[in-house]
Specification:
Oligomer: single chain
CATH class: Alpha Beta
Number of strands: 5
Largest sheet: 5 strands, mixed
Number of domains: 1
Strand order of the largest sheet: 3-2-1-4-5
Helix content: 40-55%
CATH topology: Nucleotidyltransferase, domain 5
Structural class: alpha/beta
Shape: globular
Radius of gyration: 14 Å
Length: 146
């Protein structure tokens, strides 16, 4: 079974998947939507990925403010978490995602990806950082949630 990592944004959802052993995270895809509140197709795509990739758990990045408070984006993420749990029947673990987008931008820049092409990959790279943080914590293989 695999773990799905998600970086939920206003117009995109970055998707990453673990390997079957739950050791490493790899970028998978970016789901794009035209309107922030139009989530039906996004949720349907996530359900397809879960089924096709044999996912048994979801890790969702929680965008806390740097002072650990929860802003508007975090509240929308909590709503998305509830939708995901209802639609998929899977546990959705929240994972602190502070600075993952900054780190993803840095990796793409250092890899020589042109600025205009970075947008295509940044969300899935951020999702893989979120997922790798969860996997590195040992929570998946020990059953202890973060």
């Amino acid at each position: 079974m695999r773990v799905l990592g998600l970086d939920y944004g206003s117009k995109t959802v970055g998707v990453a998947l673990s390997d079957a052993l739950g050791l490493t995270a790899q970028p998978f895809e970016t789901i794009v939507r035209k309107d922030e509140n139009k989530l039906r197709q996004t949720l349907a795509r996530i359900e397809t990925i879960i089924r096709e990739q044999e996912v048994d758990r979801i890790v969702l990045g929680l965008p806390k403010n740097m002072n650990s408070t929860m802003g508007d984006r975090a509240e929308k993420t909590l709503e998305f978490q509830a939708m995901l749990e209802r639609r998929t029947g899977l546990k959705v673990i929240l994972w602190d995602e502070r600075l993952t987008t900054v780190a993803a931008e840095r990796v793409l820049q250092e890899s020589g990806v042109r600025r205009e092409n970075r947008k295509e990959y940044i969300d899935q790279i951020a999702a893989s950082f979120i997922l790798q943080g969860y996997l590195d914590s040992g929570a998946y293989n020990t059953g202890v949630e973060g």
